[in-house]
Automatic annotation (TrEMBL), chain A:
Lineage top rank: taxon: Eukaryota
GO terms, molecular function: mRNA 3'-UTR binding
Protein's gene: lrpprc
Protein name per the record: Leucine rich pentatricopeptide repeat containing
Keywords, sorted A to Z: Repeat
From TrEMBL, chain B:
Name of the featured protein: SRA stem-loop interacting RNA binding protein
Entry superkingdom: Eukaryota
Keywords recorded for this protein, A-Z: RNA-binding
Gene behind the chain: slirp
GO molecular function annotations of the record: RNA binding
InterPro entries tied to this protein: Nucleotide-bd_a/b_plait_sf (IPR012677), RBD_domain_sf (IPR035979), RRM_dom (IPR000504), SLIRP/GR-RBP-like (IPR052462), SLIRP_RRM (IPR034152)
Pfam families: RRM_1 (PF00076)
Domain RRM positions: 9-86
Length: 1442, 100
């Protein structure tokens, strides 16, 4: 912002200058000169810039909101985004997200990367049926938005996208053909315009103005003036307007034939035709000179453009630079770089220029441009990282290393990048360019930077994937050549897996001439020995010269070797060595503990079978260890003891016990340890008579008097009312006075009103009127020349604290406006100021405006300006500034205008001032001046201000003005074009101007941006309403009420036919002919029916269409299919699928449909079908949903199909979506399958393994217990129950026990639950789990008993306050008022405070019962208290944690 | 198993430069006390690590020493260091690669 204001301040704004340009003379006072563009040089040009040039640079105007604010353009970050795009898009079923990503990329950087575009394209193809707009978006991305791709590849991609989307039945209209043309032009693709037109004709699509323009450009690019003239002639014959774009193309055309004179002469020709040459024309001319390296003519042309008030932007200059580079005139480039002004959006434009230059092999020029970029300021250490994108693209384009190295050196030396070489290496590794990587590594090494083994991993991973052994060996050799030792991690993770055995690896190494003496080989050898020959291992590692090596490196192998128990001597020796020698343990770890832990791992790694089989050997082993004075710590002993107790090997335990260290013999009981864990005339007569009677009877008359006067007020009979008042003077009450005062006001009798008011004051000084009557009185007084009296009333209002409601404030505003309308400036001012000063009302722009309106009413603009300034000073509001400015512009009062501008700039900033001036010029019809303002450097879009003016134009039907505004903002930075066209279309809709709407659609193509669906729908609505054809596919909305009657009729017909179930009449020729145009009715209707849930009708409609031989859109079939599946009608769904296939042979179920199909089949027990669908999904690259997988696995589990569960599990792992599934899905169902097959042991083994493995994520197995309990399988339950106890008691793993306990409770098996608790009392400690059980139960009515049972079994399971809250919630759900009251009473007795939520619930019960609660109901909403409670609990927990 | 009941003193370290592997991270954090475990997972698909990992110390003191220092700079890059709030992810797959 600061930078922007600086640039705006460069020119001191002078409206006088602006106003004079419109006059016949071009020269004005100095300020005016400045403004016409001579001094500041590069500003302000009045021209029609509608066409996006065929430029090489990806320019931000290509997209509606291209280019955002200033941000971090770290290319590395961007690349990382892509990875996440890849992962996330795979998981996202909807690609809207991806499309938004694409849009975002263009907005941010003015480009898209190939990877991102391809992924989105792939996703669109895979997931669904592309809409016409999506197709447009993809197509338009295949041109200059891809600066990193060579031109020919971009065109190939465009053709691929075009063909594939056509296959998928995306509907193409003229906008698609125009987009393809644009891509051709951007990619300098040579094609035959005649063939292109023939292709459009074949597709029955009429070319429009934009098509012809682009074809002319195509001819001109080839230097074919004749071809261009033919089309130009055709356009003239069709009366199509010839715009600047056509002339610019002709400039290029002539230049390409080598006729620069004719090219130059196009400009005067244009002027003769009434079109001023704009930047586009000048750029075409500049580029033509650039192709010839004619720097003098370039400079002359730049000057000519400047003199013609035509402002060229950085992007324009960049195109000239690009052409100079491509044409080999590098010597002139620095001069052109000097012309760059670093405008807003410079960075992304310059980056794209760099990328394009590199792609075209112009690295040196790219490097020059790179150096013009600002070095990003990192909060991080001030480390420079300029040019990451540059280096990456160099590497990707296989630029010579000599060049890369040279650039790196320069970047580093000029402190632009701290680690350019390392970054280049990273890019090369990422791109898997082995040779480049190795060469770069040499350079890195030469720089004295470290080379590490893991630098080679990305390359090894690539070769490993392809099983390319030779490739791997070559890398290893290169590693050694670079002096990087082959470490164990590299060997074991990236090398060994490729060989059948260690020996085979050794041999291959030898054959390849790789030395096998490095550290990694040693480790690898150790592992080999540890698993095979313990004696030799001992000899090797006991040698004092053997280097330190962490036992973890070969621990697994050693365990394997030990478990063979064939060399007891060596085993003992090795343990003794580990026990005493520090070389095998990490610093800080006690060697004796390490040895003990090894023993624990040994026992842990053995299954029960193995253990029993080796019991003898183990006993002897431990005995020998004992004799060697090996001891183990208490912890280790306990661990081993738990394992051994599980396997029931008491003898062996004795041997282990012998090893336990004596000083730690004092054992701690396991129980203690567990605790630690946590709504007239005659009537008036009647009334008057009644009054007299009452008076005679000396009874109170006031109420009757009021009634009488009220009746007189209604007939507006003031005289008689006043007479009555005189008669009953003493009986007048303030409210009767109020009635009379109000009547006077209504009759505009200010004097009488005032008299009455004064009389009232005399009688009762404290009496006050209501707000409305006061305001009416103020209005009457001020409009009848009694301003001072009105002011007094205002004061009185304040004194009496009259409440000003919104209608009263509006009343007062209308009073001020009415006074202003008389032009009495002073009166309004006095009234306004009084009201504000008193604080009766708060000043707002609207409330301040009547004073200004009064001046405007008198045509006193200077006065108005003065007043508005005063107003700003006092109230910080600028009412009616726009009207003042428009007035000043219209009368040409430059002096006042200048004053206004200065004031505005000073007070509100130049940007706001410029917008105010812009709207004033627009409103006054001074478009030329308005345009200049928009071209001020540093201007950016202010959407809210533009919306304000656009809405003003729409409400006053100012089409011309609105169009002008939209046109002028075409190149405005950050301007949302879709919004702008939306405004014009809104006015078109209001005035039913379909011609204009259609023209706008064409213009959108010309501007080359993608309109949003709502914009397209607006165009379509206007066209349809006027009986016109819509030339494009309209995005459907199912909720559109306009379509409903037609829809209901169609559907009813179809349903009736279906219900009659009569054999369908043979489709007569007449019927078929009549049906053809109806097709378009089916698709949207089907969509609407499905959305509304009328699935039967939709289904009937599909069948009807089929009988008529109509093919519907694939998306429609899919929609009906899914609706049918959602109801479980899989058979009907398959009928729809077959119908679809009969019309569209390539029809496939969409991803969502397949997922629903799987679920439906599984629910019906057709698991085969479900599994087959899953397989076909995987084959067609679709991603099954978690819900579908879960249903399928559960169905397989219920069937006992272990094998297929494993198959699904492996497939899910390959897809990489396992993490989103419940971690227990597979184990639970596999176990269930085992149980189903009667193999409870395998189930137990599986689960036990899972829960004892310290490295897996464990969660609830309640699902399994529920299923087993439901099936009454006692055997399985017993075994699982034993397992749960074992896990709890020996392994401190309480999840299964707690799950079982809660499931028993849930099933009402209270006795069993009690036993469970007795056996595993630690369950009582699992408070978090118990609380979540209670929370869950308290969500549904009728569950209180379960909570009560739980609490009876474990009294301290839940905190009292919390328990009472949930109990209250249950009573509320159960509508149990009596119990709720009792509960409250109990709480009061116990002295426990009830929280607000509790009281709120109880109060509601009291109200429902028609009673009043004996306490004050908390005033806020439920949600409020729920949040409050949640926050306080979270806080309490956080405190507890600290 | 004996170790699982013990208190753990773990750091979550992010923004680790690609040039550093487990060894470099371990060596760096060794200045604050004995590093018990250093986990930096490399992606099987790419051969690069994800830029984050976990470091555990044997003592609370070492953990606090490390938490007190700011900034942590490794290979010219500022690391993000936090006390680990979640347990180490499942990691038994290949014990022997942990020392990388």
């Amino acid at each position: 912002m600061a930078a922007l204001l600086r640039s705006a301040r460069l020119l001191k704004f002078s409206p006088s200058g602006l106003l004079q340009i419109t006059g016949p003379k071009r020269s004005g006072p100095p300020l005016g000169r400045l403004y016409s563009g001579a001094v500041g040089g590069r500003r302000a040009g009045v021209c029609s810039r509608q066409i996006s040039r065929v430029g090489e640079n990806a320019s931000s105007r290509v997209w509606p909101y291209a280019v955002g604010g200033v941000r971090n353009y770290g290319a590395a970050t961007e690349r990382r985004d892509e990875v996440s795009v890849a992962v996330q898009s795979k998981q996202a079923n909807q690609f809207d997200w991806a499309l938004a990503k694409l849009d975002h990329s263009v907005k941010r950087t003015g480009r898209v990367t190939k990877t991102l575009l391809l992924r989105i394209f792939h996703d669109i193809c895979r997931t669904g049926y592309p809409s016409s707009n999506q197709a447009l978006l993809l197509l338009r991305s295949c041109g200059s938005l891809l600066p990193e791709m060579p031109l020919n590849e971009r065109t190939e991609l465009a053709h691929h996208v075009w063909g594939k989307l056509q296959e998928l039945r995306a509907q193409y209209d003229v906008s698609h053909y125009n987009a393809l043309l644009k891509v051709y032009l951007q990619n300098e693709f040579e094609f035959s315009p005649t063939d292109f037109l023939a292709k459009m004709e074949a597709a029955d699509i009429l070319p429009n103005r934009v098509t012809y323009q682009r074809l002319i450009t195509a001819y001109c690019q080839k230097g074919d003036i004749e071809g261009a003239s033919t089309i130009l002639g055709f356009m003239k014959s069709k009366d199509l307007p010839i715009t600047e774009a056509v002339f610019s193309s002709l400039v290029t055309g002539h230049a390409r034939t080598g006729d620069m004179e004719s090219a130059k002469n196009i400009l005067p020709v244009m002027q003769q035709a009434g079109i001023e040459p704009g930047p586009d024309t000048y750029v075409s001319l500049l580029m033509a000179y650039a192709e010839r390296g004619d720097i003098d003519s370039i400079k002359q042309t730049l000057e000519a453009a400047e003199n013609a008030d035509c402002r060229l932007m950085d992007r324009d200059i960049m195109q000239v630079i690009f052409v100079l580079a491509k044409s080999g005139y590098h010597e002139h480039i620095p001069e052109m770089i000097e012309c760059l002004k670093h405008e807003r959006g410079y960075v992304p434009d310059a980056m794209n220029l760099c990328l394009s230059l590199i792609t075209q092999g112009q690295e040196d020029t790219a490097f020059l441009i790179l150096k013009t970029l600002p070095v990003a300021q990192f909060e991080n250490l001030g480390d420079a990282e300029l040019g990451n994108f540059f280096l990456r693209h160099l590497v990707n384009r296989d630029t010579s290393l000599e060049k890369i190295s040279r650039y790196c050196k320069e970047l580093q030396e000029s402190s632009l990048h701290s680690t350019p070489l390392t970054f280049s290496l990273y890019c090369a590794l990422e791109a898997k360019k082995t040779d480049t990587c190795l060469e770069l590594m040499k350079l890195v090494k030469a720089e004295g930077l470290p080379l590490r083994p893991h630098y080679f991993w990305p390359l090894l991973v690539e070769y490993g994937k392809n099983q390319n052994t030779t490739g791997v060996l070559e890398i290893i050799k290169a590693m050694q050549g670079l002096g990087v030792s082959l470490d164990l991690a590299t060997l074991s993770n990236h090398v060994m897996p490729l060989f059948s055995s260690a020996e085979a690896a050794q041999q291959a190494f030898k054959a390849f001439g790789i030395t096998t003496k490095s550290g990694g080989f040693v480790c690898s050898g150790i592992r080999l020995l540890a698993g095979t020959n313990l004696a030799e291992l001992y000899t090797l590692i006991s040698d004092p010269s053997f280097p330190p090596l962490d036992i973890q490196v070969f621990c697994n192998s050693l365990l394997t070797g030990f478990k063979k128990f064939n060399d007891m001597d060596s085993m003992v020796k090795i343990v003794v060595l580990l026990y005493n020698d520090g070389r095998f343990t990490r610093r800080g770890v006690n060697t004796t503990d390490a040895a003990g832990f090894f023993l624990y791992n040994l026992i842990d790694s053995m299954s029960e079978k193995q253990l029993k089989a080796q019991e003898k050997n183990l006993r002897s082993f431990f005995k020998q260890l004992h004799t060697q004075n090996i001891t183990i710590s208490q912890n280790i002993y306990r661990g081993i003891k738990n394992l051994l107790e599980l396997y029931n090997t008491p003898e062996l335990l004795k041997n282990v016990n012998a090893l336990k260290r004596s000083e730690e013999r004092t054992s701690i009981s396991p129980a203690v340890e567990l605790r630690e864990a946590t709504d007239n005339g005659a009537m008036v007569l009647v009334l008057e008579n009644r009054l007299a009677e009452l008076k005679a009877e000396k009874k109170p008359v006031s109420p009757t008097l009021k009634q009488a006067i009220n009746a007189l007020c209604a007939e507006e009979n003031l005289q008689r009312a006043l007479k009555l008042k005189q008669q009953y003077e003493e009986d007048m009450t303030p409210s009767i006075y109020a009635l009379l005062i109000n009547l006077c006001c209504r009759l505009k009798n200010a004097d009488e009103a005032l008299n009455l008011k004064r009389e009232l004051n005399r009688k009762d000084s404290s009496a006050a009127l209501d707000g409305r009557k006061y305001v009416t009185l103020v209005r009457t007084l001020s409009l009848n020349g009694k301003v001072e009296e009105a002011v007094d009333i205002l004061k009185e209002m304040k004194e009496k604290d009259v409440v000003m409601k919104d209608p009263n404030i509006t009343g007062l505003f209308h009073t001020f406006c009415a006074v202003a309308d008389t032009g009495d400036v002073d009166a309004v001012q006095r009234l306004q100021d009084t009201a504000f000063t008193l604080g009766l009302i708060k000043p707002s722009a609207n409330l301040c405006s009547p004073a200004i309106s009064a001046y405007l009413k008198r045509d006193d603009l200077a006065g108005a300006l003065e007043a508005v300034q005063q107003c700003y000073k006092r109230y910080k509001h600028l009412p009616r500034m726009h009207d003042i400015l428009v007035g000043l512009v219209e009368i040409g009062d430059t002096e006042s205008l200048q004053k206004a501008m200065d004031f505005m700039s000073h007070e509100r900033g130049e940007m706001i001032m410029l917008y105010d001036l812009f709207f004033a010029f627009l409103q006054a019809g001074r478009y030329r001046e308005a345009r200049k303002i928009m071209e001020t450097p540093g201007m950016r879009a202010k959407p809210t201000r533009m919306q304000w003016y656009a809405e003003k134009c729409i409400s006053t039907n100012q089409m011309e003005t609105l169009e002008q505004m939209v046109d002028m903002t075409a190149k405005l930075f950050d301007c949302d074009r879709d919004d702008m066209y939306g405004y014009i279309l809104q006015l078109c809709k209001k005035t039913n101007n379909w011609q204009k709407a259609e023209a706008m659609w064409t213009k959108m193509q010309e501007e080359n941006f993608i309109p949003q669906e709502r914009t397209l729908r607006l165009v379509a609505d206007i066209l349809r309403k006027n009986g016109q054809n819509v030339p494009f596919e309209v995005p459907e909305t199912w909720y559109d009420p306009a379509k409903t009657p037609q829809l209901v009729k169609l559907a009813a017909e179809a349903a009736a036919e279906a219900a009659a179930a009569a054999p369908p009449p043979p489709p007569t020729a007449e019927k078929t002919a009549a049906a053809a145009p109806v097709r378009d009715n089916y698709d949207p209707n089907l969509f609407a029916l499905c959305k509304k849930g009328n699935v039967e009708e939709a289904y009937a409609l599909v069948k009807k269409a089929d009988e008529q031989g109509l093919s519907l859109r694939p998306g429609s079939y899919d929609c009906v299919l899914r609706a049918l599946l959602a109801r479980g009608s899989d058979e009907d769904a398959m009928v729809v699928k077959d119908i679809a296939r009969s019309h569209l042979p390539n029809f496939q179920l969409s991803e969502n449909a397949n997922n629903m199909y799987i679920i439906t089949l599984c629910k019906k027990g057709q698991i085969e079908g479900g599994l087959e669908t899953l397989k076909s999904m995987l084959q067609s690259d679709q991603v099954p949903s978690f819900h579908a997988i879960t249903k399928l696995v559960q169905a397989l589990g219920a069937q006992g199909d272990v094998e297929r569960i494993q198959y699904v599990e492996s497939q899910v792992k390959i897809l990489g979506i396992a993490t989103k599934l419940s971690s227990m899905l597979f184990p639970n169902n596999t176990a269930l399958a085992h149980i189903k097959n009667g193999d409870v042991e395998s189930a137990v083994e599986l689960l036990e393994g899972l829960y004892t493995d310290p490295h897996t994520i464990k969660s609830s197995m309640s699902f399994l217990f529920r299923k087993v309990l439901q099936s009454d399988d006692d055997n399985a339950l017993d075994k699982l129950s034993a397992m749960a106890e074992r896990l709890a008691n020996h392994f401190a793993c309480y999840i299964p026990a707690t799950d079982l306990f809660l499931q028993l409770l849930e099933m009402g098996k209270v006795e069993e639950a009690k036993f469970m608790l007795a056996r595993c009392n630690a369950v009582a400690e699992q408070k978090t789990v118990l609380l979540s059980y209670v929370t869950e139960k308290a969500q549904m009515p009728g569950q209180l008993d379960k909570i009560k049972t739980l609490v009876s079994l474990i009294p301290d399971a839940i905190e009292k306050e919390v328990l009472y809250s949930y109990t209250m919630k249950c009573h509320d759900l159960d509508k149990d008022f009596t119990s709720a009251k009792a509960l409250y009473k109990e709480m009061m007795e116990e002295g426990i405070a009830a929280d607000e939520l509790f009281l709120k619930r109880l109060a509601a019960l009291y109200r429902n019962a028609g009673e009043t609660p004996p306490f004050i109901e908390p005033p806020e909403s439920f949600k409020f208290y729920a949040n409050k409670l949640r926050e306080s609990r979270a806080k309490a927990q956080a405190t507890a944690e600290e | 198993m004996a170790a699982s009941s013990k208190k753990v003193f773990e750091l979550f370290v992010a923004r680790i430069p690609w040039t550093a592997a487990g060894k470099e991270v371990r060596d760096y954090f060794g200045q604050f006390g004995t590093v018990k475990k250093c986990l930096l997972k490399f992606e099987k698909e790419t051969g690069f690590h994800k830029g984050f990992g976990w470091v555990s110390f044997t003592t609370e003191e070492a953990l606090n020493n490390a938490l007190q220092k700011d900034p942590h700079v490794l290979e010219g890059t500022k690391l993000q260091v936090h006390k680990n709030r979640h347990p180490f992810p499942g990691r038994k797959v290949n014990k022997e690669s942990e020392i990388d």
